[in-house]
From TrEMBL:
InterPro entries: TPR-like_helical_dom_sf. Gene3D superfamilies: Tetratricopeptide repeat domain. Residues 1-19 form the signal peptide. This is Flp pilus assembly protein TadD, contains TPR repeats. The lineage of its organism: Bacteria, Pseudomonadati, Pseudomonadota, Alphaproteobacteria, Rhodobacterales.
Amino acid sequence: MRHLILVILCVAGVVGLSACDKAIDKDAVDRDFAGVNAIDGTGLNELMLTAGDPNEAVAYFQRADGMDPDRIDLLRGLAKSLVRAKRNTEAVAAWNKVVSHADATDEDRVSLADAMIRNNDWDRAEATLNAIPPTHESYQRYRLEAMIADSNQNWAKADSFYETAVGLTTKPAPVLNNWGYSKLTRGDYAGAEKMFFDTLRHDPRMFTAKNNLVLARGAQGNYTLPVMQMSQVERAELLHTLGLAAIKRGDVEIGKGLLRNAVETHPQHFDAAATALAALEAPVSN
């Protein structure tokens, strides 16, 4: 990524030199860099938001914003990069700066609420969403509204928001997984199982949904792995999860068998499963 930025800056420098035969000073370099940013608009900025190290993106947008602090796209880029880098406290501050801009949108306020939730500030996130007009309807808004309803244990409201969010995106796997986990925490294990199957239909590679699906089945006393796409390592990890679910339900011998299977299935040493099995099989002293 650093090489890409260097190449673009070098190209800008060559163009500048060919245009005139003047000495290059610091102000000229700064002007050239600002010019690259202005021309780039959605090119390099978008690349930095989606590729490479998030902390490199943070540094890039911090430099760019320092040169042109009034550009809202650079403020947004910095805020999004901080979210990607999991620097949540800084991300909230950055999104607050975005929403203070004259050109801020309601979706920017939704993004601020998202950053607040990531920072475990649920009350302020709820207040931020409540201040947005109900006419602003987006996938991101309804996904967050559903999560907040979940945190308040308002299940009917959560289901309504999850359903609306699913209808507003072409990639519903993440929100379906959240919806399934919501049902899992309520004790609706059959409903959760169905939701995780729907998740995997949209994204067969999502391991979190696979693990959640196994938890939902285990909670119902179903200790067989479902037919789905999985690697050998994933199979071992899912057997481990299923074994722990069985033990939690009191089916200790079944759980031991699943843990043994997990240890045997894993292509390397599976420390977590081996440790759990050893603890269960250790003799009990009086």
